[in-house]
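Pilot study result, target chain (132 residues):
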Amino acid sequence: MRVNCVGAIVRDGEGRTLLIRRGRPPGRGLWSLPGGRIEPGESDAEAVVREVLEETGLTVTAGRLAGTVDRPGPGGTTYEIRDYLAEVSGGVLRAGDDADDAGWFTDEELSRLPLTTGLLDALVGWAVIRPR
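Predicted structure:
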């Protein structure tokens, strides 16, 4: 079974990336992009806006597709994750929903964090961040 998901790649004016620390499986305790499952009838852009607001308290505008990855899930499920660039338009940063923490990280800090599998390689491969 394939599950459609989205993620948001949000960068600030200082070149830092917005990440959340996952509070639930899969990847509990690991840092990742804010995102999640697309709800029935929801567009990718609508899902990006909703997920970022739920997990970080920030309002964003969804931009172009940066890339797509497939990640294995329980019971043979495959999560198809479409990651979009997004820009903050309002709100106050705070962890919410299934995120235990949220913060802004430099490219150098990303390479030292416990990230979800394949995240750093994807961001580098899509030329979102520069490898350190």
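One observation from the pilot: The chain is about 20% helix and 40% strand. A full batch analysis is planned for the follow-on phase.
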